[in-house]
Structures are given as structure tokens and as C-alpha cells.
Design goal:
Blueprint lengths: L2 H18 L14 H7 L4 E6 L2 E2 L3 E2 L6 H10 L4 E5 L9 H10 L4 E4 L5 H9 L4 E5 L5 H13 L3 E6 L2 H9 L4 E5 L11 H7 L9 E5 L5 H8 L5 E4 L1 H5 L3 H6 L11
Parallel strand pairs: 1-4, 1-10, 4-5, 5-6, 6-7, 7-8, 8-9, 9-10
Antiparallel strand pairs: 2-3
Helix pairs in contact: 3-4
The structure holds indole-3-glycerol phosphate.
Indole-3-glycerol phosphate (IGP) binds next to strand 10 and helix 10.
Length: 262
């Protein structure tokens, strides 16, 4: 069993609980700008800044972090989008975190979770998300297609996460516009920015799609390397959660996009 298998098993249990429980976390549902449009039009690398207390690979990262303070600092530094981990068991997040952030920032908001069922997408939307994540490695083609159209049908944007070229093909088969490469292998936890490089070599940049590089990004040097691959955004958690100077750290990553990206 890999960690991804463990997480998905836990999610099946949580989905059953959600169905039996009508306590839904809500926030005011405000209209947020399109993440796709922001990234597509950007000339500088955009930062999707993540609220992440803990993870299976790193353990506790910032157990006492306050999601409202964290998100406000991200917003002030010009983050393009805020990602909030809502998984409780493995990442110590919650839909309450997401709803609290939704109340204080007006920018695109990503619900970061392991989606296997439409009810989770309903909960993400109720809590204020404008974007959800679908992880190709966690879904078969039928599930991926079904959840993708369910989310877009609700007016949500979808970030489709891939790890290799085979998974990229599956993302393109559902016509994903926002494609994220996870530099971390969810099976082994190994992190390598070369994952983004591999995908960028075959990425259809001409087709109104944006490439996002996720995980393991430690600062400006990594950001420059990734911008040279044509990615329009980076998804950064741990580096920002551990930074004593969040706004400076985030701003230092907003480098010019130098790779071929259209
Ligand atoms: O903390 P990092 O290494 O900057 O990574 C952030 C983000 O990419 C990572 O949290 C992530 C990427 N894909 C995921 C899927 C589920 C949970 C978490 C993730």
C-alpha cells in the first residue's frame, strides 16, 4: 500500500460520513476572478500559495498556523491564488480553514483535497472554493471525466494534477486547461523539479492551457528554473509556511516567465 492508497481508503470512509451528515460548512459565496485567465495572461511567474500545517512526507510543518493570517499575508504579497488543504487526517486541515480564508480574500481559492466523489466538490464549493484539485493518479478515466464535468458544471475551475507524460495524456483527454505537475511522487515522496521539465518538453502550450509546477520549490533559484520551462505558476506550501518573512519570500518568486509558454 502506498500513502496515496491509504489516503484514498480514508476518503471513501469520509465520503460515507459526509453522506450521513448534513452539517455543511458555508462561507459567503463571492464571485472570484478566473485563475486560468490570470495565469494565461501573466508575464511573471504566479504563486499559488498554500496553507499547509502538516503533511505525510514532512510531518508537522506549522501546527499552530492561523489560516486567516497566513492567507492575508499571501494576498498582500500578490499571490494569484490561495490553496487550502482541507484534508484532516494527513494534513491537519479542514473545511473550516477554507471557509475562514474565503471570508477574507477575494482572489481564486483552491480546495486542496483528494476528490473521489461529487459530495466533496459540493462541500468545497459551499466552503467558498472557486477551484478544486483532481489528481489523475487517484482516479480512473471514468471518475476523472465524471468529477471534472461535475465541477465545471457547478462553475468551478479544475486544476488537474499529473506526475508523468502518461498522466498528462489523461489530463488532456478531459480537456484540462489548468495542468499541474506534482514534482513530488505521491508513492515514494521523492521530489525532483525534473518532473516539470519532462512534462514541459511535450506540453501543448499553443492550445490555451497553462502549466503549473507543484511541490518542493524552495525559493527564487527554483522559480527561475521553472519559469524557464514555460510554467506560468508555482504551487508553494512548506517554504512559505516556514518563512519568517512570508511576503518577501513570496515576492522573490515572482520572476519573469522566460520559457516558451504560448
Ligand atoms: O509544500 P510544498 O512542497 O511546497 O508542496 C505544495 C503542494 O504542491 C503540495 O502540498 C501538494 C501537491 N499536490 C498535492 C496533492 C495533495 C496534497 C498536497 C499536495
Amino acid at each position: 500500500m502506498t500513502i496515496l492508497d491509504d489516503i484514498i481508503a480514508q476518503k471513501r470512509f469520509e465520503v460515507a460520513e459526509m453522506r450521513a451528515d448534513d452539517k455543511v460548512v458555508h462561507s459567503r459565496n463571492i464571485l472570484r476572478p478566473s485563475l486560468f485567465k490570470r495565469l494565461y495572461e501573466a508575464s511573471h511567474l504566479q504563486v499559488i500559495a498554500e496553507m499547509k500545517r502538516a503533511s505525510p512526507s514532512k510531518g508537522l510543518i506549522a501546527g499552530g498556523a492561523n489560516p486567516v493570517e497566513q492567507a492575508s499575508a499571501y494576498f498582500n504579497a500578490g499571490a494569484a491564488c490561495i490553496s487550502v488543504l482541507t484534508d484532516k487526517t494527513f494534513f491537519k486541515g479542514s473545511f473550516n480553514d477554507l471557509a475562514a480564508v474565503a471570508e477574507v480574500v477575494p482572489i481564486p481559492l483552491l480546495c486542496k483535497d483528494f476528490m473521489i466523489d461529487p459530495i466533496q466538490i459540493d462541500r468545497a464549493k459551499a466552503a467558498g472554493a472557486s477551484v478544486i484539485l483532481l489528481i489523475v493518479a487517484a482516479l480512473n478515466d471514468e471518475e476523472l471525466t465524471g468529477l471534472y464535468s461535475y465541477a465545471t458544471g457547478l462553475g468551478l475551475e479544475v486544476l488537474v494534477e499529473v506526475h508523468d507524460v502518461e498522466e498528462l495524456k489523461r489530463a488532456l483527454a478531459v480537456d484540462a486547461k489548468l495542468i499541474g505537475v506534482n514534482n513530488r511522487d505521491l508513492r515514494t515522496f521523492e521530489v525532483d523539479l525534473a518532473r516539470t521539465e519532462e512534462i514541459s518538453a511535450v506540453f501543448p502550450f499553443g492550445e490555451q492551457r497553462v502549466l503549473i509546477s507543484e511541490s518542493g520549490i524552495t525559493g527564487r533559484v527554483d522559480a527561475e528554473r521553472i519559469s524557464g520551462m514555460g510554467a506560468k505558476a508555482i504551487l508553494v506550501g512548506e517554504t512559505l509556511m516556514r518563512s519568517g518573512t512570508i511576503e518577501d519570500t513570496l515576492r522573490s518568486m515572482q520572476v519573469e516567465v522566460t520559457g516558451l509558454s504560448r
